[in-house]
Amino acid sequence: MTESPPPTQPSDAMFDASKITRPDDSLLVYYALVAACTVIGFPFVFIPLWIRFKTLSYRFDDTGVSMCWGYFFRREVHLTYRRLQDIHVTRNIVERWMGLSKLPLQTASGTAGATMQIEGIRDPEPLRDFLYAQMRGARNDSLDPESVDSDDQVLGVLTEIRDELRRIRNVPEGDDR
């Protein structure tokens, strides 16, 4: 008698975003190709991109996404899942050839560009789905039962005021009830 293989889990159940801490190594090759396109400006373009690649790191935790990079001018960006508004997957033709993707994360900050751009990701769909799930979960958590109860109380008070104003309007002038 042969044993049947265990049922396979959906890929979303096995995806762990916390394992993504650095961009894929092929991002450095992409940066070299971008710098090579400038021919004479290669060192001026490649060195800052090399520094960015060497120092770029990501962190996905329970509250949000963090990204930091830079030797001389260190930049750190942290976005909570609650602030996320939209997530895209973008690839130019070279990135598609190399199998790389970018995930621009947008907030409601009012700027046209992305607040954070996660670069050098292979197979970005599970990460995008994870971020969407976290974003929805963060929004649902904001509706705690106490705030709903207080909203019901406020609605009740406003309804009483409305009813009282309607009753006052129906009272003839000079009647001091």
Structural features, described:
The protein has 177 residues and is an alpha+beta fold. Helices cover 44% and strands 19% of the residues. The chain contains six helices and six strands, in the order H-H-H-E-E-E-E-H-E-E-H-H. The protein has helices at residues 11-14, 26-36, 42-55, 93-98, 125-141, 145-169; strands spanning 57-60, 64-69, 75-80, 84-87, 101-107, 116-121. The strands form two sheets. Strands 1-2-3 form a three-stranded antiparallel beta sheet. Strands 4-5-6 form a three-stranded antiparallel beta sheet, covered by helices on one side. A hairpin with a 5-residue loop joins strand 2 (64-69) and strand 3. Helix 2 runs antiparallel to helix 3 (42-55). The longest helix has 25 residues, at 145-169. The termini are far apart. The model is unreliable at 1-10 (pLDDT under 50).
Give a short summary of the structure.
By secondary structure, this protein is an alpha+beta fold. The chain has six helices and six strands.
Topology:
Blueprint: H1 11-14, H2 26-36, H3 42-55, E1 57-60, E2 64-69, E3 75-80, E4 84-87, H4 93-98, E5 101-107, E6 116-121, H5 125-141, H6 145-169
Q: Assembly state here?
A: single chain
Shape: elongated
Number of helices: 6
Summed over residues and divided by their number, the pLDDT gives a mean of: 84
Helix content: 40-55%
Tally of extended strands? 6
Kindly name the structural category.
Answer: alpha+beta
How many strands, which pairing sense, and closed or not: the largest β-sheet?
A: 3 strands, antiparallel
Strand order of the largest sheet: 1-2-3
Q: How would you spell out the order of helices and strands?
A: HHHEEEEHEEHH
